[in-house]
Amino acid sequence: DVAFFLVAGDDPEAVTDGEKTALSGFPVAKPQTIEGFKDEQNKQVDALVGLVYALLSLSVIVALLGIVNTLALSVHERTRELGLLRAVGMSRRQVRRMVRAESVITAAIGALLGIVLGVALAAIVSRPLAQDGFVFEIPVVTLVVVVILASIMGVLAAIPPARRASKVDVLRAVTTE
């Protein structure tokens, strides 16, 4: 890397001409101002952030499948308990609501833990970049949207297990060990 700096009293055109002469042997070289360099670096960081968001989306899909699987297993293992609850008066709707609530709580706790750990890690990793003018900002609106979306996804992930739980045959469930 080569840097040209203006000193008080220098002629900007003379520095630009000297820069062009010095870089004439390097056709790929691209002269930039400090602001232009920072903008270029910010574009690269934004592209990296886009890649991270894509990976985050994949991890969310895997997490949703994990929630569905966990709830399905929970419903299967608690067949007797669900049957007893139905036998003492719990309605199918209440069973579905209970399973959905478990799912939303699981998804929200996972999202909150992920946000806390992610923000802490981002703060640690971005600290050395502060020397180069990069600013660490917590995207509060994005994080709130993530928690809301996680809760909605928790409800959606609970639909199949909740439906299965509400259709448990009371008599067979009570006699099951």
Account of the 3D structure:
The protein has two domains: 31 residues, no CATH class; 142 residues, no CATH class. 75% of the residues lie in helices and 0% in strands. The chain is built from six helices and no strands. The longest helix has 44 residues.
Number of helices: 6
Shape: rod-shaped
- Average pLDDT across residues? 86
Helix content: over 70%
Order of helices and strands: HHHHHH
Largest sheet: none
Q: End-to-end span in angstroms?
A: 73 Å
Tally of distinct domains? 2
| Rg on CA atoms, Å | 28 Å
Poorly predicted ranges = none
The class by helix and strand makeup works out as mainly alpha
Count the beta strands.
0
Fraction in beta strands: under 5%
Topology:
Elements: H1 12-23, H2 34-77, H3 79-87, H4 92-126, H5 140-166, H6 170-175
